[in-house]
Amino acid sequence: MGRPAVVQDDVWPRPSLRKRWFKNTIVCEDEGWSLTYSGSTWRIDRYDYRENGRLMTFGGEGASKQMDIFLTPDLSWEDAPTQSIDEETRRVILRRITAALQWAGFSVGFFELIEE
């Protein structure tokens, strides 16, 4: 099914981030991306990463100070679900998500979903 979440090391230096008023959206205007997180159903949270008009959605679970995000082997943009992103783009996106959530005060773990 999967393997345990791997808690990410602190990202430093962090990009220049800000949080939108009354929303769980963290924005990096300098680099043109944002992350929105919310609890959408019982015990499953939703994480929306946006960059240059594109969207990538993740599921996961959030606790008091820990956010675990589920990753599929082939990450893709919502507008091109059959086209996987390359490893370098994946690394950048996951680093940005980690930085944003750490900036907001959370520990971040990625949970790799593996089909058996």
Q: Which class of secondary structure composition applies to the elements?
A: mainly beta
Count all strands and give the number: 8
By DSSP (H or I, 4+ residues per run), the number of helices equals 1
- Strand order, sheet with most strands: 1-8-7-6-5-4-3-2
Outline? globular
- In percent, how much strand structure appears in the residues? 35-45%
Percent helix range: 10-25%
Uncertain residue ranges? none
What gyration radius follows from the Cα positions, in whole Å? 14 Å
Mean pLDDT: 85
Topology (elements, then pairings):
Elements: E1 6-7, E2 18-19, E3 25-28, E4 33-41, E5 44-51, E6 54-62, E7 66-71, H1 87-103, E8 107-112
Parallel strand pairs: 7-8
Antiparallel strand pairs: 1-8, 2-3, 3-4, 4-5, 5-6, 6-7
Walk me through what this model shows:
- The chain is mostly beta strands.
- It has one domain (6-112).
- Helix content is 15%, strand content 40%.
- It contains 1 helix and 8 strands, in the order E-E-E-E-E-E-E-H-E.
- It has one helix spanning 87-103, and strands at residues 6-7, 18-19, 25-28, 33-41, 44-51, 54-62, 66-71, 107-112.
- It has an 8-stranded mixed sheet, with helices on one face.
- A hairpin with a 3-residue loop joins strand 6 and strand 7.
- The longest helix is centred in the last third of the chain and has 17 residues, at 87-103.
- The mean pLDDT is 85.
Keyword list:
116 residues, mainly beta, 40% strand
Provide a brief overview of the structure.
The protein is mainly beta and 116 residues long. Helices cover 15% and strands 40% of the residues.
